[in-house]
Amino acid sequence: MYSIGLLILFPLLAGIAVARAPDNAIRAQRVRISAGAIAIATLLLTGLHLGLGPEFYAIPGWLHATLDGFFRLAGVALALVLLYFCRHIVAREWYIPVLILLQAGLMLSAELAPVHPEVAHPFYIDSFTLLMALIVGVVGGLICLHAVQYMRDYHAHEPEVADRQPAFYFVIFLFLAAMFGIVFTNHLTWLFVFWEVTTLCSFWLISYSGTDEAIRNGFRALGLNLIGGVTFAAAIAWLTYGPGLHTWELDRLVAAGSALALIPAALIAVAGLAKSAQLPFSSWLLGAMVAPTPVSALLHSSTMVKAGVFLLVKLSPVFYDTVAGLLLSLIGGVTFLVTSLVAVNQRNAKRVLAYSTIANLGLIVMCAGVGTAAAMWAAILLILFHAVAKALLFLAVGTTEHLIGSRDIEDMEGLVYRRPEMAAMLLVGILGMFLAPFGMLLSKYTTFQAFLNMDVMPGDGLLLAAILAFGSAPTLFFWSKWMGKLVAMPRRPRPSTEPIARDELIALGALTVITYVACALFPLADTVFVIPYTHYLAALGLIPDIQAVIPWETVWLMTLMLGGLFVLPLLFWLKPPRFAEVSGYLSGANVDGSASYRGAMGAERMVESRGYYMTGFFHETTLLRYGGLGTAALIALMIGGATL
After folding, report:
1. Is the CB of residue 589 less than 8 Å from the CB of residue 468?
2. What is the mean pLDDT of residues 125-135?
3. Which of 220, 444, 556, 594 has its CA 20 to 30 A from that of 282?
4. H helix intervals, 127-282
5. For 613-631, what is each residue's pLDDT tens digit?
6. Among candidates 110, 304, 96, which has minimal Cα distance to 188?
7. Nearest to 643, CA basis, from 270, 129, 112
8. Any idea what DSSP says for residue 55?
9. Could you count the other beta carbons within 10 Å of the beta carbon of residue 450?
């Protein structure tokens, strides 16, 4: 229990120490030390508790009462801080302060009730929370390390942006502290405070540059996440005043089963959908692209969006074999399909990553709604691979943008020749997203099995399986298209041979190695983190113990094949003359190698290559509009169905 408290408190103290650093050099050193310490502490905690099974912790009465008062005051303080930031909102954002007041009112009405549920075990650890803690601590720490040099370069390239790095790092570390709180807290009202701290931090980080666009996108993120905050607060009020189940403990909520827990679980699920940027809430994640790249990586990979799917997977047993669970899966499925199609249209690399993030989270939500052991198995490992590979991709795109001056995929043509180290890292990240064992093959195989075994209503499993199939095709298309541009013949002058900053190189190299290791040792991750969690839930009778059955010879054969594919990017580090440019065959009429050719009447024509974006087939605005309307209707049906 004390190690959990230390892990939550240390990032906060580190943020204060970094913010109070007297100069940039000392600040950078404190960031490096703090990021390393957080990662090491997370690894030690995992080593100490691995294999011990779920553990629930009680605390002394005086400490419990003190923390109750602290979190109550913290909730009020959060509401006041958010209202203070709302003093500059425009008329169309009038709903944001209303949501803040409504949320605060619901929480205070529950916490000040004459009689409210007692919480015996406010903290806990299980194998799933350990995996999440590793993602937050290790991946989050590497993102902080990458930010050290990146933020210096950012302000050098954006001199008009006020340099607020002390506050920036304080908010980043506060963010990590809140994430650890979400992961380890069993007390729902305390978890809610940590949940809203991430909302506040994301609003501030998205608005960091201070431009009108950044502030507008920050308020959009705040407003959409506050909708989820209100439903979360409503769930706590229901658990306080409503009929049936009265508890503020997450484990007891899950153990109560669908009959008693479905209404509060559906309300909390809306908060999870908003936090994980599912339709119709997805626009806040796209707006987060205006923030510096470390912020995008932090929000999209290891923290903000993972909080949403983490809570949904935790609640997954409640949704097993229910109409509300089917509707939750459909919300994720529609999001997966729509955003995968929209990603095909995108040339901006960060927008491709944003839409693919939303799509992958949609796939995890589909699994969470099913609620079987096989579906949860796929969902948890999708969380792992997405966190590692997407963090690598976001940071690599940020570094590449500084090196070549663009984040347009078309401008990355021939990067394998121009900056081979960056091309290799990008390729590893892309392969980790759609060719890693649980990114494309085994997880989707298992997910198909889980869908086809559903029996909520006729045809439900077939519908979800069809959505998965049609959503996977554009995923393969846009990732392959990006890979093709990276290895295509270079058409632009070589950029300067500016070296990559040490901090950025360490972070990118570490994430590349982690991606390789995660792919190579995925059976170990399965055995250590996932199976113990699903078996524990099955032993309690919360989910049917139908585990994914995949022959080991198939697993090892796939591992061998994928290992060969992952070795290919390493070749891009080989020095010339091992890599030699050759002329393409252009009807035998090449001019200046493969750069141009002679066409009709001897006219010289330049060779050009462009990716397919299919804007005539898939209209981003139309798809998002109807996808948003459809998922909004499904959310209403989910809550209504749970109530009925």
Report:
1. no
2. 94
3. 444
4. 127-134, 140-157, 165-184, 188-206, 212-241, 250-255, 258-275
5. 888 888 888 999 999 999 9
6. 110
7. 270
8. E
9. 26
| 531 closest CA partner among 25, 111, 126, 69 | 126
Token look-up 């989270």 returns 361
Is there a contact between 343 and 313 (Cβ–Cβ < 8 Å)? no
- Give start and end residues of each alpha helix (H) in 492-619: 502-520, 522-525, 531-539, 552-567
Q: For the segment 301-321, what is each residue's pLDDT rounded down to a tens digit?
A: 667 888 999 999 999 999 998
Burial 519-537 (b: 16+ CB within 10 A, else e): beebeebbebbbbbbbbbb
Go through the chain and tell me how many residues it has.
Answer: 644
pTM: 0.92
The two structure tokens encoding residue 362:
């949609």
Closest CA to 314 of 17, 54, 13: 54
CB 367 within 8 A of CB 382: yes
Q: How far apart are CA 207 and CA 210, in angstroms?
A: 6
Contact 41, 180 (CB under 8 A): no
Contacts for 245 with CB less than 8 Å, ≥ 6 apart: 239, 252, 253, 256, 260, 261, 264
Long-range contacts of 550-558 (CB under 8 A, 24+ apart): 550/442, 550/445, 550/446, 555/437, 555/442, 555/523, 558/437, 558/441, 558/442
Write the single-letter amino acid at 167. Answer: A
Q: Which helix (H) or strand (E) holds 549?
A: none
